[in-house]
Write a structure and sequence with these properties.
36% strand, 4-stranded antiparallel β-sheet, 4 strands, 25% helix, alpha+beta, 101 residues
């Protein structure tokens, strides 16, 4: 898995970098997992993985590259204030609640 293209802009109001990326995943063949993308972006930007929130990843039909969007926050606390709970759960930053039954 290789990071091919990265663009970002800093949003001072929300204290985050808004990152748009493209990943070549021809070695695995399948869309990369959020955890793997978080680690890759954290390494690329030199930050802790807890501050990286992957919003979306999509592989174009017939291609071996995925495009996506992620936010890198200045602090974990800001991420918890700004991001919706379902996004935090997808990124395993918020514990899953036990289902009732």
């Amino acid at each position: 898995m290789e990071l091919k293209h990265v663009t970002y802009r800093y949003n001072p109001l929300l204290e985050r970098k808004e990152v748009y990326f493209e990943i070549d995943h021809s070695d695995t063949g399948s869309t990369p997992k959020r955890e793997d993308v978080r680690e890759l972006l954290a390494e690329h930007f030199g930050v802790e993985a807890e501050r990286v929130v992957v919003r979306r990843i999509e592989t174009l039909t017939g291609s071996l590259s995925a495009r996506g969007e992620a936010h890198i926050y200045d602090s974990v606390e800001t991420a918890f204030l700004v991001e919706p709970d379902y996004i935090l759960k997808r990124n395993k930053l918020l514990a899953e609640e036990a289902g009732e039954g």
